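thought: user wants a sequence for this fold. calling inverse folding tool.
action: design(structure=
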């Protein structure tokens, strides 16, 4: 089988064709969305419905599950602009994301209730009902699961709620879908899946901490049991190999004494810890870097034009190192780069750094080309010349 002049096995060639077809479909959808000329109110309403349908499709038929899976894994019921744009890109959604994000009065966040008022009202209603009836998600879970069970299925969730006074079965199914982010027909949740429904923010943070601490204790017990089994195997191996010479193939080896460090549970936990620690360091370093850039230059675009990338809209790791050294920034340059270069391609484009400002520049460029033919032509307009002479007393039309 031959694709683009390259011979490949049938399976891999078919997979390549499928990927190319998927990319072409995404490009066609994006082009169609960009070419739509509709009334603004009607267009926004249609875009919102399309986004809700996309989330429901990726949430196994549930809008709430799709929101939790792709927009809001932590259950905060709100998302910032950067995460919102990235989630829309992963979902291949090409509506007017700026207009949708502007539905929320807070310019920095999009709340779920602003996107889906009816479903958001159901969640708020259940949160306050659970707080008034049981006091906390932990008390509700204990009452509904019973007998110290660690899992709660849909039937028990709905039955207990109805028995205590929550009447709407359809609303209960919506809430359960929001808690059951895994889906897949298992229809069961754990206590940790309910914590985000805690109405009190301080109590919610404490519950998250307690749940993580409980998981850590369970892991320690599991690791201790596994370590005990390894120790027993070690003693047996020593007894078996004690009668052999040190160079014999069945004699105990010195490097096998590190049983605890080599245990699968310990190695796995250490790996997860290192990954989480690296993510935390890179995120913190990136935030410090961006705060310094905005504090020094006022905004990201000016910083890129003046310092980071004067001749282009992309930076490399060397650019970040140079900036940190020049400004004596007390942060590790590699951690900053790890936080910026999320796709690990060695280059960070401006739309990766600040999506919102990049989209604003793109809209301005489109307007300039449609109105004047090019961005350079703006400087030759009489209004621009008059403003420039008023502010500076000079005029250089060729400076663009």
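)
observation: tool returned 400 residues.
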């Amino acid at each position: 089988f031959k694709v683009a002049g390259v011979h490949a096995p049938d399976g891999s060639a078919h997979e390549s064709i499928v990927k190319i077809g998927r990319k072409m479909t995404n490009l066609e959808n994006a082009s169609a969305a960009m070419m739509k000329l509709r009334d603004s109110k009607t267009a926004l309403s249609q875009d919102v419905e399309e986004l809700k349908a996309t989330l429901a499709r990726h949430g196994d038929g549930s809008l709430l599950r799709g929101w939790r899976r792709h927009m809001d894994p932590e259950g905060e019921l709100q998302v910032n602009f950067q995460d919102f744009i990235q989630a829309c890109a992963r979902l291949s959604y090409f509506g007017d994301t700026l207009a949708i994000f502007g539905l929320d009065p807070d310019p920095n966040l999009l709340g779920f209730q602003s996107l889906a008022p009816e479903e958001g009202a159901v969640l708020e209603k259940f949160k306050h009902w659970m707080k008034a009836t049981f006091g906390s998600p932990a008390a509700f879970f204990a009452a509904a699961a019973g007998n110290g069970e660690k899992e709660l299925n849909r039937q028990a969730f709905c039955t207990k709620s109805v028995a205590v006074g929550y009447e709407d079965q359809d609303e209960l199914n919506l809430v359960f879908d929001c808690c059951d982010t895994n889906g897949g027909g298992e229809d069961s949740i754990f206590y940790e899946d309910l914590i985000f429904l805690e109405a009190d923010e301080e109590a919610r943070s404490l519950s998250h901490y307690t749940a993580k601490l409980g998981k850590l204790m369970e892991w320690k017990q599991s690791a201790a049991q596994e370590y005990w089994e390894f120790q027993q195997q070690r003693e047996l191996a020593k007894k078996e190999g004690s009668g052999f010479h040190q160079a014999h193939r069945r004699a105990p080896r010195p490097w096998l004494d590190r049983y605890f460090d080599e245990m699968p549970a310990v190695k796995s936990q250490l790996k997860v810890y290192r990954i989480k620690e690296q993510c935390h360091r890179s995120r913190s370093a990136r935030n410090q870097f961006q705060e310094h850039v905005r504090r020094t230059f006022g905004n990201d675009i000016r910083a890129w034009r003046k310092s980071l990338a004067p001749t282009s809209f992309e930076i490399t790791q060397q650019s970040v190192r140079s900036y940190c050294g020049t400004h004596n920034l007390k942060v590790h340059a590699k951690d900053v780069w790890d936080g910026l270069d999320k796709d690990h391609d060695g280059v960070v484009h401006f739309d990766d750094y600040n999506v919102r400002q990049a989209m604003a520049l793109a809209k301005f460029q489109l307007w300039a080309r449609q109105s004047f033919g090019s961005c350079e032509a703006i400087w030759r307009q009489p209004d621009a010349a008059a403003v420039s002479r008023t502010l500076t007393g000079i005029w250089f039309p060729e400076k663009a």
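thought: summarizing for user.
answer: Here is the designed sequence. Strands lie at 2-3, 6-7, 78-80, 109-111, 152-153, 188-189, 314-315, 348-349.
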